[in-house]
Design goal:
Helices cover 11% and strands 0% of the residues. With 218 residues, it is largely without helices or strands. Mean pLDDT is 85; it is low at 1-21.
Length: 218
Amino acid sequence: MKLATVATTVMMMILGLTVPAQAENPTHLKQLLETNNCPKCDLSGAELAGVNLQGADLRDANLQGANLQGANLNEVNFNRAALTEANLERANLIAAKLHGANLERANLSYSNLSLAGLVIASLNHANLSHANLIGANLESADLTGANLKNAQQSVANLGEVRLKEGSLYGFDISGVNLRDADLTGANLTGANLTASDLAGATLENATMINANLMNIRR
């Protein structure tokens, strides 16, 4: 039977047919929706758009490719969760816990991440355009190649963050701690860096056209 299954899969690939991708565990999805508690659950590819999951426990859960567009995720515990390529557009993540979470290539455009904890989170090539990051803690987060165009951030910590080749076009980060941040090759065009702490920051090949550098600390 195993040989027959392999042969069928190979034949489907040869003919250009799609092999069904692994989806979420139905039992785990049911548990989440009924109890709001599902740490370490497999919810990959789950359809959760617009769902109210406020305060849910999703520590170490697998939400890779899940659709959480417009969902209420305020105060959800996503610590160490896998959210790679997840759709979080316009989701509410106020005070969400995302310590060590993997958000690589996730869509967080127009999301509300105010007061969220994103310490050492991986946001490689994530889309954070127009996101609300006011009060969010991004200390030591990896934002390599991330898009932060027109995102808002203030009175929070970006110390030791990695933004290599990322885009901060129009980003308002006035008064923010960027100490020891890696901004190599970053696009800082039009960014507001007024009174920001850039001591020890790497700005090699960064584009800073029309950036506001008034009273920065170096």
